[in-house]
């Protein structure tokens, strides 16, 4: 039986690091007794098959196995031929060819083998060679056959019979219902158009689309509202869409109006920073549908607080004008109907009465009939 300590040290041993081919083979012969040659060679074959060696170590390993076949009835020749035939390194097949015709190949340096060039010929004749034997006799005195790995003989096995199900066993239950086949009736042209719209919607989060591109997206959303759910746009990135393409944001919200997710979108509109685009989106939505009163109240209140907190006088005046124009539009279209909100707007306009637009909103509220 092979010494475990030696078996473990083959990989680290100098035999695969020798500079010449014959040097590696002689080191192999000195390291193991004859009775252990086969096991050691088989381990080297396993490292080759598992690709655990460097290029130079693979060359030495292949040469050791080839030389070993001279004394072991060609047991490894067919396996090595299979191995080098599928190897991505052409010099391995060339090494096999040189070994077959050149008796002095062992004196060649490993570095020169790696430089071999030329046409690698077919080696099927080696694989089909009758001299190859799948089983070899070991070196022990009792002539026990050594059968390892792929060299195991195949045994004929009878086909097992079916076992009858006993009354205590649970029968295999097959479902009786057959699922209905759903055909994809969408044509290739429609599928390509749908893919184009999804790509445009994805791009709309980061880039300002052209008028033609916006028209394509809006037309597609009106035709198929489900595109709003397949576009990758959600309430989390709604703010980016509002700033880059506010008109598309309006149609996205209109497309999901009957979904429970619309509340998330309203919540995001309330929280995004006040801007001309956010005011435009809410204004368009208010004119096209009935927005929740709580949403409008909270949105306008947040915008008024944002204006009050601005430090830069020029920016503050500009935002107050934008907000007042927005509120005046809602008042003219009778969208607002909340006494508490009216009081907040009056206080806001009084605080900034020096701005013309704020004074107009204040007069509009005062001129409304007292219901």
Describe the protein's architecture and organization.
By secondary structure, the chain is an all-alpha fold. It has 19 helices and 2 strands. The chain has 3 domains: 148 residues, no CATH class; 79 residues, no CATH class; 81 residues. α9 packs across α10 and α18 runs antiparallel to α19.
Chart the SSEs and their pairings.
Blueprint: H1 4-9, H2 21-31, H3 37-49, H4 55-68, H5 77-85, H6 90-101, H7 110-113, H8 124-127, E1 136-137, E2 145-146, H9 188-203, H10 211-223, H11 227-230, H12 238-244, H13 246-255, H14 262-271, H15 276-288, H16 293-309, H17 313-332, H18 339-351, H19 356-367
Antiparallel strand pairs: 1-2
Organism: Stentor coeruleus
Subcellular location: Cytoplasm; Nucleus
Pfam families: CNOT11
The gist of it:
α3 runs antiparallel to α4 (55-68). This protein has helices spanning 4-9, 21-31, 37-49, 55-68, 77-85, 90-101, 110-113, 124-127, 188-203, 211-223, 227-230, 238-244, 246-255, 262-271, 276-288, 293-309, 313-332, 339-351, 356-367; strands at 136-137, 145-146. 56% of the residues lie in helices and 1% in strands.
> N- to C-terminal separation?
107 Å
Strand-pairing-aware structural class? mainly alpha
Rg (CA only): 42 Å
Helix and strand string, N-terminal first?
HHHHHHHHEEHHHHHHHHHHH
Coarse shape: elongated
Q: What does the average pLDDT come to? A: 77
Helix count equals 19
Per DSSP E runs of 2 or more residues, the count of β-strands stands at 2
How helical, in percent, are the residues? 55-70%
Domain count: 3
Provide the spatial order of strands within the biggest beta sheet: 1-2
User: Unreliable stretches, pLDDT < 50, 5 or more residues?
Assistant: 1-8, 130-151
Name the beta content range: under 5%
For the sheet with most strands, the description reads: 2 strands, antiparallel
């Amino acid at each position: 039986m092979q010494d475990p300590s030696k078996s473990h040290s083959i990989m680290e041993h100098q035999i695969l690091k020798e500079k010449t081919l014959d040097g590696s083979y002689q080191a192999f012969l000195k390291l193991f007794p004859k009775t252990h040659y086969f096991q050691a060679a088989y381990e080297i074959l396993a490292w080759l098959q598992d690709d655990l060696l460097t290029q130079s170590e693979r060359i030495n390993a292949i040469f050791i196995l080839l030389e070993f076949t001279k004394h072991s009835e060609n047991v490894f020749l067919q396996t090595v031929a299979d191995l080098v035939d599928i190897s991505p390194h052409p010099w391995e097949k060339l090494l096999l060819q040189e070994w077959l015709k050149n008796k002095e190949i062992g004196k060649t340096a490993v570095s020169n083998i790696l430089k071999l060039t030329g046409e690698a010929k077919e080696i099927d004749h080696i694989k089909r060679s009758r001299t190859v034997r799948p089983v070899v006799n070991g070196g022990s005195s009792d002539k026990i056959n050594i059968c390892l790995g792929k060299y195991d003989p195949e045994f004929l096995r009878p086909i097992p019979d079916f076992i009858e199900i006993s009354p205590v066993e649970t029968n295999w239950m097959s479902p009786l219902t057959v699922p209905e086949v759903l055909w994809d009736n969408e044509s290739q042209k429609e599928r390509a158009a749908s893919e184009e719209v999804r790509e445009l919607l994805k791009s709309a989060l980061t880039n300002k689309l052209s008028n033609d591109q916006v028209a394509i997206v809006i037309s597609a959303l009106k035709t198929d509202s489900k595109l709003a759910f397949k576009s990758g746009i959600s309430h989390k990135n709604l703010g980016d869409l509002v700033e880059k393409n506010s008109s598309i944001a309006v149609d996205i919200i209109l497309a999901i109006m009957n979904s429970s997710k619309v509340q998330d979108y309203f919540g995001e509109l309330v929280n995004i920073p006040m801007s001309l685009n956010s005011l435009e989106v809410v204004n368009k939505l208010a004119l096209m549908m009935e927005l929740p009163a709580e949403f409008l109240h909270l949105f306008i209140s947040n915008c008024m607080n944002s204006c009050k907190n601005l430090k830069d006088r020029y920016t503050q005046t500009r935002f107050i004008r934008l907000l007042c124009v927005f509120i005046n539009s809602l008042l003219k279209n009778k969208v607002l109907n909340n006494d508490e909100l009216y009081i907040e707007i009056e206080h806001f306009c009084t605080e900034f009465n020096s701005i013309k637009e704020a004074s107009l909103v204040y007069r509009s509220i005062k001129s409304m009939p007292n219901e």
